[in-house]
Every structure is written in structure tokens, then in C-alpha cells.
Design goal:
single chain; Thiol Ester Dehydrase, Chain A; six-stranded antiparallel β-sheet; globular
């Protein structure tokens, strides 16, 4: 487990779908995930034809976006304490290719805009040269009492 990843988002196994950070700019981040054959969901989705569920591919994008959002908010001094990134909107999700055991995913999240407590991003996933998915999404930071900061 990459300590840089776990130091920047609250997700932990078995619900951590980012292995490492590959590259960062001021308004984008690229991460990597290897779809390891031992992932438990491959046993039931689907026996004899294992495919990573689309919702978990999406989660890898959202977790990548949470890392980016934390970096942006830290840089601007907006975040403190125990705030948690929470997905508040998904739009235009397009799945183009299946992810199978052993695929190495390259996941990118890019900042589109910030508006108050909300950070709008676009994300994409590739497995090698294959486009896997694209999605637009929005994340907000929430405090432990459920209120949205900003």
C-alpha cells in the first residue's frame, strides 16, 4: 500500500482502489491501480468471465479525485481537521471497455471548477491503450457531523 495515497485520502482496504500516484500538476492527478486477480469481487462478477464492476472502476476515479481535491484545498488553506470528501454528483459516465484481472489501470482526474463547497472534475480510466471509461463528477468536503464546508 502506497503511503502517499493513504496519507491523502481516508479510504482503506478493502475499499481502496488506488495503488499509487503517478503524476500531479496543479489541476490534475494521475494514479494507477492493478486489477489484481485476487480481488474478491472477481470471484462473483462473473465466475468464468471475471470483470471488474463498473461502480468500482468509477470509485477508482472518485478516489483519485478525492486526492486531487485534498491537494487543492490544502494549497488554498480551505481544509482542516477531519473533513471527508463525499461524492455529490455523477454525470456523463461512459464505459467503453471491460477491466479484467491483471489489467493495469491509469486513472486521471482533472479540475474543471470550484464553486463554494463543491469541486467539479472530469475523470478517465485507461487499461494500456484501451479507453475504459470517462465521467464528470462533483465532490464536496463534509465534516463528521455531516455538514458541507466551503
Amino acid at each position: 500500500m502506497d503511503t502517499d495515497v493513504v496519507s491523502r485520502i481516508p479510504h482503506r482496504p478493502p475499499f481502496l482502489f488506488v495503488d499509487s500516484i503517478v503524476a500531479e500538476t496543479e489541476d490534475s492527478i494521475t494514479t494507477r491501480l492493478v486489477a489484481r486477480p485476487e480481488f474478491d469481487f472477481f470471484r462473483g462478477h462473473y465466475p468464468g468471465n471475471p470483470i471488474m464492476p463498473g461502480v468500482l472502476i468509477s470509485e477508482s476515479v472518485f478516489q483519485t479525485g478525492a486526492i486531487l481535491m485534498g491537494k487543492i484545498m490544502e494549497r488554498s488553506g480551505d481544509v482542516g481537521g477531519a473533513a471527508t470528501p463525499v461524492l455529490v454528483r455523477i454525470e456523463n459516465a461512459r464505459f467503453r471497455s471491460a477491466v479484467r484481472p491483471g489489467d493495469e489501470l491509469t486513472i486521471t482526474a482533472k479540475l474543471k471548477e470550484r464553486s463554494g463547497a463543491f469541486t467539479f472534475m472530469t475523470g478517465s480510466v485507461k487499461a494500456g491503450d484501451r479507453r475504459v471509461m470517462t465521467v464528470d463528477f462533483c465532490v464536496a468536503m463534509t465534516s463528521p457531523d455531516g455538514t458541507t464546508g466551503g
